[in-house]
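So, can you check this one?
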Amino acid sequence: MQENPLTTKGIIQQNGEISKDKINLISGAITPPFAETVWIFTNGDMDTINRLTHILLDMNTDKDREQLFNLIRVLYGLMGLQFSDEAVPIASHPQALEYFIFSFLADFGEVIQELRNEETA
């Protein structure tokens, strides 16, 4: 019997619950390069960043969340970034995916805010 990659990576605990700490670590590692690259590519244009943010937030529904995950992966590729192999299996588990997207969006907002603050300092 093959091991579940979500369990072996510690994303799903033995009791079947998601490991929010592990998902936060994965999101926290991959979101800053994404947000920083968006910032650079848009030259800090908050209108464009806000439009992207609204698209990401609007797609964060039970119906569209898997497509949102795929969109994020495509954006990583378009920006020349490597998407985390550790994050890929998360899409196969609805609760893990929901928490990952929540964490990703929160981290994205925080990094963009930090970049804005640095620009105005």
Notes: The chain has a mean pLDDT of 95. The longest helix spans residues 94-120.
